[in-house]
Specification:
The protein has 70 residues and is α+β, with helices and mostly antiparallel strands. The chain is built from two helices and five strands; from the N terminus they run ββαββαβ. The chain has one domain: Alpha-Beta Plaits. A three-stranded antiparallel sheet has the order 1-2-5, with no helix packed on it. A hairpin with a 4-residue loop joins strand 1 and strand 2. It is globular, with a radius of gyration of 11 Å. 21% of the residues are buried. The structure holds iron/sulfur cluster (2 copies). One iron/sulfur cluster (SF4) binds next to helix 1. One iron/sulfur cluster binds next to helix 2.
Length: 70
């Protein structure tokens, strides 16, 4: 299982890289541009900009994203 985790002081985002297919939906739906695709995998490079809206979690067709606030 290939899970990657990113943290701030208040929340944590985890992406299942076995499930992520790089379709970019999370990049498109995130209102604060938290995600970028690197090597066809989602990376929350701007995690500190997250406003905990849960759009990434709710719209990922692979259910690859886990967010501790969602
Ligand atoms: S929406 Fe899901 S499957 Fe698509 S790039 Fe983001 S994490 Fe990967
Ligand atoms: S919870 Fe909302 S603001 Fe935070 S990374 Fe996901 S889509 Fe972006």
């Amino acid at each position: 299982m290939d899970y990657k985790t990113w943290k701030t002081d208040t929340y944590k985002i985890e992406v299942d890289y076995d499930a992520c297919n790089g379709n970019g939906t999370c990049v498109e739906v995130c209102p604060t541009e938290v995600y970028e695709l690197l090597h066809d995998k989602a990376v929350p490079v701007n995690i500190e900009k997250c406003i905990e809206c849960c759009a990434c979690v709710d719209n990922c067709p692979q259910q690859a994203i886990t967010h501790t606030s969602c």
